[in-house]
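> @MW can you paste both from yesterday?
MW: sure, first one:
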Amino acid sequence: MKLTFDKQLSAQVPQEAVGNGASWQVTSQISFNGINIQQTATYELVDIQDGIATMNINLTQQAPGAQKILLPQIPKGMNMTMESYKATGTGQAKIALNRIMPLSTSIKMNTDTQMRTNVPNSPEEMIMNQQISTQLNIQSK
């Protein structure tokens, strides 16, 4: 999960010069526990002063179809499948143009996941629906 947040929080700025109001998209693939997710981040430069840029961020994440979850703690004979995954988020980042990581980042994410699992030695399946809201605030030292 830390790798996922690091990818989300690192500043993705275009090579060419941009000014206030400029926006751009960055699409990336995130993988964890056997799950592959496509993330699209849309950045908008809202202010730049004294070498510090303020950007609004919109995130979407989606898994392309059902995927088997690979976790070492899943008991033998039990299978878990993520049937669907969708997340959206908004936030803001402040970056110093001479640094790699942002000075501060605030992201609010809403995630909807549906998972299916079997009960070992039983024909029964269990469907789990999960909704998670996360507020993440990070300040660099």
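MW: second:
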Amino acid sequence: MTNRQLLPALPVSALGILCMVGAASILVYRENGLTGVTELLKRSFDFKRVKAKIWYAPIIFLMPCIMVVSYIVMRLMGSLVPVPQFSLVTALALFAAFFIGALGEELGWSGYAIDPLQDRFGALRGALLLGVIWAVWHVIPLLEAQRSLVFIAWWSLGTLAARVIITWLYNNTGKSVFVAALFHTMINLTWQLFPINGSFYDPRVTGVITAAVAVVVVIVWGPSRLVRDRNARKSAVQTTVSPTTAAELAFRGGPGRAKIWKGEVLTEEARR
């Protein structure tokens, strides 16, 4: 394994994100041609799907809060965690880099994979299944970063929980890939800054706290859809859309799959 790194604890193999967006594009092209690929890529900035702007609070601030709690817990456990230090310029530069990387992954994970999994297994089980794949996807980069198997195991717990949270945010924001990528970015950014260039990051603490948050999400919003009924009703009926948007929705299978009927796009739920 190579020891070359893009950033501290971020090996060169992390560039595998390019494979994810490439694979998703190829699969969509086989199913829906160039129009489908275009619609998939457009979802990179589908922030207009977010109708209730209050959702930007957990999207942006949930991971920083989790890391603050992790920091406090580690200090209480006696760990000599240094005082966080980072510059705004560094944070903004990392944010931009991580956002590009997160888009590359989430176009595959959220833009292509999660909807069929949810349709078949439900939101929670679909998210957990995708979380397992997501964790396995990162094993080689973690090994390249010389992480121990214990570290990887605890990190995987946090990753499973994070995928549940991402799916929750995705489902409650009009299934926005932009939202999934933004939260994914905040995961990577807070890890890289904690507390100084990712030093002292403990996946045991952060993983357990993230898992606790995911459990609360499942209890409050329900495991089947991770959406409260009120939000589900709002998202069930879609307005009249353009043919290109219809094509985008049509390639997503299962109960939420779009049906074109008298010039409108309706979900299965709306037609019942």
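> thanks! Residues 88-121 form the longest helix (34 residues).
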